């Protein structure tokens, strides 16, 4: 289980206080208005932001003392962070060996990760030779190759057409089930996750103001900020 317990962050122009629980193996969608603190919550979990108080656990392990690289977490960022001069396979391999000095076992793991996201046969292509959706799959494969049990995705599919976006969400859900990993993703289009996510959390003003099943959370009458978001 992922437990974020009253974690407080302070900035000159913004403060946040988060509490959230996600059962192991679940897909939790974080929704809410732009600037409400969704990305900050993921950065807190990943270790890029440090709270001034509170606690943070995953699988009963205290994450706060751990640097980001030592946390059992893989993260896919909004811009995907692919290196344009490297092939798809090399970009994925960075998740295993930043030096890109791979042995046969490493190469098999890279090939397996590309296969898992339906990119078999595209290992030698560079990002500029691939579609936006294929580039996003490369970033996802790089996260998967680390074999971390908690996967964070920050608006990973925002630039895609609705059909492709839903296909990518279904792909993440399928990988989550097959690999028994926990997934937390931020998304601006809650209609894409209502039938897929196990859990949703609405974040606004630096707080989780509602959490539960997607249908429960995305109810306009629950809070005026949710109503405003849903239009």
Summarize the model shown.
This protein has 231 residues and is α/β, with parallel strands linked by helices. The protein is built from seven helices and ten strands.
* Strand order, largest beta sheet: 6-7-8-3-9-10
Helix content: 25-40%
User: If you average the pLDDT, what whole number results?
Assistant: 91
Count every beta strand, where a strand is a DSSP E run of 2 or more residues. Answer: 10
Q: What is the C-alpha radius of gyration, as a whole number of Å?
A: 18 Å
Q: Assign an overall shape.
A: globular
What is the H-and-E element order? Answer: EEEHEEEHHHEHEEEHH
Largest sheet: 6 strands, mixed
Which structural class is indicated by helix and strand composition?
Answer: alpha/beta
SSE arrangement:
Elements: E1 2-10, E2 15-22, E3 27-31, H1 38-46, E4 53-58, E5 61-62, E6 73-76, H2 88-93, H3 104-116, H4 132-144, E7 150-154, H5 162-179, E8 182-186, E9 199-204, E10 207-212, H6 214-217, H7 224-230
Helix pairs in contact: 3-4
Question: What does the model show?
Answer:
The protein has 231 residues and is of the alpha/beta class. Helix content is 30%, strand content 24%. The chain contains 7 helices and 10 strands. The strands form 2 sheets. It has a 6-stranded mixed sheet, with helices on both faces. Strands 2-1-4-5 form a 4-stranded antiparallel sheet, with no helix packed on it. Helix 5 links the parallel strand 7 and strand 8. Helix 3 crosses helix 4. It is globular, with a radius of gyration of 18 Å. It starts with a strand and ends with a helix.
């Amino acid at each position: 289980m992922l437990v974020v317990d009253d974690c407080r962050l302070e900035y000159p122009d913004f403060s946040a206080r988060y509490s959230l629980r996600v059962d192991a193996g679940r897909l939790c969608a974080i929704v809410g208005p732009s600037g409400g603190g969704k990305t900050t919550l993921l950065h807190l979990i990943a270790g890029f932001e440090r709270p001034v108080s509170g606690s943070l656990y995953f699988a009963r392990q205290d994450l706060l003392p751990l640097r980001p690289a030592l946390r059992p977490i893989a993260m896919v960022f909004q811009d995907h962070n692919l290196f344009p001069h490297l092939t798809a396979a090399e970009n994925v391999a960075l998740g295993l060996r930043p030096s890109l000095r791979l042995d046969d076992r490493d190469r098999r793991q890279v090939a397996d990760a590309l296969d898992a996201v339906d990119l078999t046969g595209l290992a030698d292509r560079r990002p500029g030779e691939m579609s936006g959706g294929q580039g996003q799959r490369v970033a996802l494969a790089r996260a998967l190759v680390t074999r971390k049990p908690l996967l964070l995705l920050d608006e990973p599919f925002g630039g895609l057409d609705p059909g492709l976006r839903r296909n990518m969400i279904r792909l993440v859900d399928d990988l989550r089930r097959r690999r028994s990993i926990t997934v937390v993703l931020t998304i601006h289009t809650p209609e894409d996750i209502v039938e897929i996510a196990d859990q949703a959390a609405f974040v606004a003003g630096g707080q989780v103001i509602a959490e539960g099943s997607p249908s429960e959370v995305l109810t306009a009458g629950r809070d005026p900020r949710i109503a405003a978001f849903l239009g």
